[in-house]
Specification:
alpha/beta, about 30% helix, eight-stranded parallel barrel, TIM Barrel, two-stranded antiparallel sheet, globular
Length: about 200
């Protein structure tokens, strides 16, 4: 998976897909500079090919997670999956029809042994996860946090993640992507992934 996160406008969404991304993330966390309201997200999603995974990024607490998912699903029916930040254990995860990715740290990944996980300690700040620690993680995961066109090849070759997720590393300002960085990141990630398959 190559996921471009923090999409706020149709131009960046379409460019990401054109360059080869197969997943896009939309931020529903209001304090974020990349927050986009549900009406605008739905209008962007309607422009995208069906095969692109459309992910709602949300920060939740255990008590409101089911309500949050239901609310966004009803307002943005084209969302395929949810990326949940803020949960501490599998017992807090609701049973829902949509695909769920649990955002966690390398230290807490064991708490979500039966889940699809995304390693993210950055929350859009461009902070790199502890790659040395991640090298010992046994379950598949999507790598996020501190990735950019310059280090994504090294990350994929060293860690062999199931996917990579980038936000600030391909931006010119929060919420606005840089087309050159976007293209280079996706090209580099695809090239590194192909090399792994050829080994």
């Amino acid at each position: 998976m190559i996921k471009i996160c923090g999409i706020t406008n149709p131009e960046d969404a379409l460019a990401s897909v054109e360059f080869g991304a197969n997943a896009l993330g939309f931020n529903f966390y209001r304090p974020s500079p990349r927050y986009t309201d549900s009406q605008e997200v739905q209008s962007i999603l309607e422009l995208l090919p069906e095969q692109v995974l459309k992910v709602a990024v949300v920060v939740v607490s255990s008590g409101d997670v089911h309500h949050t998912i239901d609310d966004i699903s009803s307002r943005v029916p084209s969302i395929d999956a949810f990326q949940l930040h803020g949960l501490k254990s599998e017992s807090e995860i609701p049973t829902v029809e949509k695909r769920l990715y649990i955002a966690t740290s390398p230290e807490e990944a064991d708490s979500f042994a039966n889940c699809e996980i995304l390693i993210d300690t950055s929350w859009g700040r461009g902070k790199k996860a502890n790659w040395e620690q991640l090298a010992y993680l046994k379950q598949p995961y999507i790598l996020s946090g501190g990735l950019d066109p310059e280090n994504v090849v090294e990350a994929i070759q060293f860690l062999h993640p199931a996917g990579v997720d980038v936000c600030s590393g391909v931006e010119q300002s929060p919420g606005i992507k840089d087309a050159g960085k976007l293209r280079r990141f996706i090209e580099q990630a695809r090239r590194a992934s192909r090399r792994l398959k050829d080994v």
